[in-house]
Amino acid sequence: MWRFRKNLRRYREDPDWHYRKRESRDWVRQFGAPGHPFGPRGNHVKHILEGHIRGYEATLFHLAAVHKGGRPATDVSMYSVAVLALPAALPATVLSPASLVRRLAAPPLPPRAGTPVDLSPAHRPRMTACSTDPAFAGLILTEQAIRRAADTKTGWRLHEAHIIGWIKERKPYERIIELAETLANVVEEFPEAVWGWGHPTPGCPSGHTP
Fold first, then answer.
1. How many beta carbons lie within 10 A of that of residue 156, not counting itself?
2. Backbone φ and ψ of 157, nearest 5°
3. From CA 149, how far away is CA 131, in angstroms rounded?
4. Which residues of the chain have pLDDT under 70?
5. How far apart are CA 55 and CA 184, in angstroms?
């Protein structure tokens, strides 16, 4: 804990970053909660850091996603989360190692977009994906994108003009910044055509193989 406090003090004193200790449960709705990685029974957000990464507005925070029970039998999953603001809204899409979101027992996208696609056995760890627009998913869920998420044990989701990424447990800010850098790499590999995509068509990429 003392290491995190030292880490926190460093960024609180950095003029390039703006820090808040906590946010309300309603605050996460701007990022599409409920939906991965947020809990269906509530979310607790702490240690919010806002700044810029590679030209993107970035929001970093620790998340306790409540997915079962209530006092005193509350069950939560802990995540470190990075959010980048995008230049345009894109169809809701999610890609994640299945182990990162299994305990949430919640639909990956709000509103429900159908049954996620299991990308196994070609990928380890087991990967899962879903999108409101199968054709759009076919453009961005490339083999390289899937392998990067698998290798870094990172889940990410597009919600309107945001890309939201998460990793397991509470990590120091340097690790969450690395997560944000990974998200920037994902976005910068999107084909140019996606930025003029328009309105998504409901559905899920059943049988889709990126």
1. 26
2. -145, 140
3. 16
4. 1-4, 69-73, 198-210
5. 9
Return the C-alpha torsion angle 50, 34, 137, 58, nearest 10. Answer: 0
Angle at 146 between CA 140 and CA 147, to 5 degrees: 135
Question: How much is the pLDDT for 111?
Answer: 75
Per-residue model confidence (pLDDT) at position 39: 92
For residue 145, give every residue at least 6 positions away whose Cβ sits within 8 Å of its Cβ, in sequence order, or none: 95, 186, 189, 210
| Nearest Cα to Cα of residue 155 among 164, 174, 41 | 164
Q: What is the pLDDT of residue 12?
A: 87
Q: What is the pLDDT of residue 209?
A: 34
From the list 151, 150, 155, 158, the residue with the least C-alpha distance to 190 is 158
Is the bond preceding residue 40 a cis peptide, omega within 30 degrees? no
- What confidence tens digit (pLDDT) does each residue in 33-51 have? 989 999 988 999 999 999 9
Residue showing tokens 């290798």? 151
Helix axes 173-188, 143-152, angle to 10 degrees: 170
pTM of the model: 0.88
> What type of residue is 170?
R
- Spatial contact of 104 and 68, defined as CB atoms under 8 Å apart: no
